C-alpha cells in the first residue's frame, strides 16, 4: 500500500479494458492521429490533456480510445519523435509548479504552518520523482532547487 504523506488510503479507479487491438468503430489513420497529437502539443496542451481531447473530441469526429493501440506508439513517444515533448516529464513539472506556488505563498504568509508542511511534502515528492527519472528522462546532474523550478516555469 503506497501511503506517502497521509494516513488516508488511495482512491481506486477504473482499469483499462484488457484488449490488445483497436476497436473497429475507431478506424482513424495512425498518421492523422500523430498529426493531431503534434497539433495539440503545439497549442500548449500536456500529454494527459491531449489523451482526453482525443478520447472526447476525436480526430475528424471519430474518438480515439487508446493512442497506443491505434498507432503502436505511446503519446509521449509521438511527441519525442516530432520534438514537441517537454524538457521534464509532466508529473515532475506539475509538482514543481505546485512547489513554486507554495513557496510564493509562504513568503507572504510565514505563519501558515499547514502550507509549510505541504511545501516540505511536495519538495520531498519532487526529489523522489527526480531520483526515478534521473539519467533516463532528465539530466544525470539534475537536483531540485526552488530557483531552478521558478526559472523553468518562467521559460514556459
UniProtKB/TrEMBL annotation:
<dbReference type="GO" id="GO:1990904">
    <property type="term" value="C:ribonucleoprotein complex"/>
</dbReference>
<dbReference type="InterPro" id="IPR012606">
    <property type="entry name" value="Ribosomal_uS15_N"/>
</dbReference>
<dbReference type="Pfam" id="PF08069">
    <property type="entry name" value="Ribosomal_S13_N"/>
</dbReference>
<dbReference type="InterPro" id="IPR009068">
    <property type="entry name" value="uS15_NS1_RNA-bd_sf"/>
</dbReference>
<comment type="subunit">
    <text>Part of the 30S ribosomal subunit.</text>
</comment>
<feature type="region of interest" description="Disordered">
    <location>
        <begin position="1"/>
        <end position="33"/>
    </location>
</feature>
<dbReference type="GO" id="GO:0006412">
    <property type="term" value="P:translation"/>
</dbReference>
<dbReference type="GO" id="GO:0005840">
    <property type="term" value="C:ribosome"/>
</dbReference>
<feature type="compositionally biased region" description="Acidic residues">
    <location>
        <begin position="21"/>
        <end position="32"/>
    </location>
</feature>
<dbReference type="InterPro" id="IPR000589">
    <property type="entry name" value="Ribosomal_uS15"/>
</dbReference>
<keyword id="KW-0689">Ribosomal protein</keyword>
<protein>
    <recommendedName>
        <fullName>Small ribosomal subunit protein uS15</fullName>
    </recommendedName>
</protein>
<dbReference type="Pfam" id="PF00312">
    <property type="entry name" value="Ribosomal_S15"/>
</dbReference>
<feature type="domain" description="Small ribosomal subunit protein uS15 N-terminal">
    <location>
        <begin position="1"/>
        <end position="59"/>
    </location>
</feature>
<feature type="compositionally biased region" description="Basic residues">
    <location>
        <begin position="1"/>
        <end position="10"/>
    </location>
</feature>
<keyword id="KW-0687">Ribonucleoprotein</keyword>
<comment type="similarity">
    <text>Belongs to the universal ribosomal protein uS15 family.</text>
</comment>
<dbReference type="InterPro" id="IPR023029">
    <property type="entry name" value="Ribosomal_uS15_arc_euk"/>
</dbReference>
Amino acid at each position: 500500500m503506497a501511503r506517502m504523506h497521509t494516513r488516508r488510503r488511495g482512491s481506486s479507479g477504473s482499469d483499462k479494458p484488457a484488449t490488445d487491438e483497436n476497436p473497429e468503430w475507431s478506424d482513424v489513420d495512425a498518421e492523422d492521429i500523430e498529426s493531431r497529437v503534434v497539433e495539440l502539443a503545439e497549442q500548449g496542451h500536456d500529454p494527459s490533456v491531449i489523451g482526453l481531447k482525443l478520447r472526447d473530441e476525436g480526430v475528424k469526429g471519430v474518438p480515439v480510445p487508446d493512442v497506443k493501440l491505434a498507432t503502436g506508439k505511446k503519446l509521449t513517444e509521438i511527441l519525442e519523435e516530432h520534438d514537441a515533448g517537454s524538457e521534464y516529464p509532466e508529473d515532475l513539472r506539475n509538482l514543481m509548479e505546485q512547489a513554486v506556488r507554495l513557496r510564493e505563498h509562504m513568503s507572504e504568509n510565514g505563519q501558515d504552518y499547514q502550507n509549510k508542511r505541504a511545501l516540505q511534502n511536495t519538495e520531498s515528492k519532487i526529489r523522489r520523482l527526480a531520483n526515478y527519472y534521473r539519467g533516463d528522462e532528465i539530466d544525470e546532474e539534475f537536483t531540485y532547487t526552488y530557483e531552478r523550478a521558478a526559472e523553468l516555469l518562467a521559460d514556459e
